[in-house]
Amino acid sequence: MEESSVERAPDVRTLTLEAFADTVIPGEKRWPGDRAIAGVSTGGGSVQAGALAVLEMPEGGMAPALDDVVAALNIHAEHHRDRVGLPTDEEVPPFTALPWADRTAVLNVLTAVGHPEKELWTGLALFCYMAFDTGAHLPTTEALAEGHPGLTLMRFETPDADGLWRFPDYSYRRPLSKLHPDTLENGSLK
Amino acid sequence: MTAGSVESTDVLIIGSGFGGSIPAYHLAAGGARVLVLERGPWLAAEEFDHDLRLGTSSTRVFEFVVGQGMSVLSGNCVGGGSVVYFAAMPRAPRFVFDRQGSIGHRLWPAAITRDALEPWYERVEEALPISQASWDTTTYAGGLWAAACDHAGRTCNPVPAAVDSDLCTNCNWMMSGCRFDAKRSLLLNYLPAALEHGAEIRPLHEVQRITRLADGGYRVHYNTVDEVDYRVVTGGGTVDAKVVIVAAGAGATPVILQRSEPALGTMPHAVGRYFSGNGERLNTAVIDEDKARDLLGLDRGDGRAYQAYQIGRGPTVASWDRLDGSRPEFERYSLEQLYFPPGLGTVLAQVPGADGPSWFGPGKKELLRDWKSWLTIFTMSEDDNEGVFGAPPPTGNANRFSQQMFGFGTISYEPTDNTLRGWEKSDADVREILEKDGLAEVLPWTNDVIGAYTVHPLASCRIGDDPATSALDDRHELRGHPGIFVTDGSAVPAGLTVNPAFTIAALAERAVPGIVAALRERGVQVVYGAPSPSGAAGGRRATREFARAAAR
Predict the structure, then answer these.
(1) Could you tell me if residue B112 is left (phi over 0), alpha (psi between -120 and 50 degrees) or otherwise beta?
(2) Is B73 part of any domain?
(3) How far apart are CA B489 and CA B276, in angstroms?
(4) Is A156 in the B-facing interface, judged by CB distances under 8 Å?
(5) How many domains does chain B have?
(6) Tell me, what's the ipTM?
(7) Per the CB < 8 Å rule, is A59 touching B172?
(8) What's the CATH code of the domain at B468?
(9) B160 in contact with A at a CB cutoff of 8 Å?
(10) Is B156 within the bounds of a domain?
(11) Across chain A, what does the average pLDDT equal?
(12) pLDDT at residue B4, as a whole number
């Protein structure tokens, strides 16, 4: 097998991890020729939400493994590509070269119960997911102020001026069901 | 300490959650020298962040250990589970104490029934204290669940909680510690009272193993860990003690004992076996806001019916219709309204009707778009004590992956048909209640990503009367190892069908007179009979007779 162009490309790591993150929570392409993002969704996805920054955080523990993860993911992608008969694409790493549905198929296989590398791929997916729904690399107040795509999509409430959350209105303040007939005065059951 | 000298104490307590703090207070107040070693950091209210960034209190005080088929979430700080818990404090239903599980006889010691435990519940209630719940303090999410239960012909109860409603801001950050000191964690009662009586607490001290001394006492070996990167060991040492109380939590206590086995001798068979995840299971619903208004008559007063998932303080109500002792074992459970913050609290939720992946992908993104209209329902059922711990990792209770929070543990858990039946029935119940008349779409969280999960690990070193299936006698003393006591959630014999903190705490209170007696046998001049940490004495009066008997 001739030497893969993948290994010479300077941004294999970024292109591969972005394509993986975009499979977890997809977003829209950042520019017309954006290969990493498949473009199956509107608005920001995990990539725009900061997935690569989360993966690179020393706090997470993922960073030292990322080169190996990228290499392994591309090998899985090549196997998938060859198995389903997709053409090779030398422009981008093998995982990034896959159409979105095939990226999803690979991720489904790698995270399935019983897969020998399930822990690794599930962990990678969890960090990408957390980037979207928590902005785990940013102080949450900052993430909200910057319009973080995940927290904004979820309409996460904004805090008070001191950066703390308080909800003075929190209750319907009326009985809404009958109590269990065995309820004691202390609130537990008999 | 000078080089070569040996540090010693009367009582060494491993862990500062309910199982550690309660004996620490009583024994220090009674005159014993008490040292508490806690593997996590020691934070005060102003250090409890409202922040989802890795490295804030959301990861500093919390541990998430992934095993084979079971992930365990627990506290990792001074105050243990009480700092990160939701503070829901129901008493265990009467039938729970008669459970037989799959072993054909009663799991609990004959000495412990609901009636026998009542005075100890009272002591804890007085100490924390616990507030009686009301509809006025029931959150929107709780009110919605109550109204849905009512609409489906069910009942629903506000749940007693160790929360001061006057201080609570309903910020829903309580899993990262309470910034407002509204949640009555152990940092506000037993622990300061223990310190007042001379107990010492050392954070970032992770106990690894226990060895035996020639005089019948024990030597406890610990590592100190870095305050930011818990993977980094910064030192270590030993302390000699006459009595050791292991209260490191049900995910860690058995691991310390397993690692101690080569030095201490054979452990009871039940150490590291019979683990229960309290039968826990979650369902997430997306509420149709129009139906919430039209079917349930809900109105926040500003035109919105609900859209309030983020508002509140964890659980405030539960439907207890299935806590019926006449139902078959494994088919009894609570259905409690709950909130989990983003991250751990959303990733396992599945997309209803998904024809592609159910927990990630474009459908999941759309599900998150409706996050404000989510309602999460928490099942606590009777699992089958399936969990077994493998060989201990090199240090701690897990191979830590991240600086904080994430690690890989040795527990394996394969749910039996009994457990699966309970989950199936509870899923069907939740669906029946919430999908009635199109109120919501519901799906359980997937167990295919990290296995089953629990925030209430139990039973991995349990009490009982049968030496073959219990590690501790009914005084919480480790069989075959006099002077070692276990007082945390690992001592609870089986799933409780409700939030277990109150029962764990009551059992710890009940264990103290026996530990006092053990200390006195070893020549320590300690007495039992301290009032509540607040100084109140009502609870003490009610337990006096038992304490006298235990001391004999």
Answers:
(1) beta
(2) yes
(3) 10
(4) yes
(5) 1
(6) 0.95
(7) no
(8) 3.50.50.60
(9) yes
(10) no
(11) 94
(12) 56
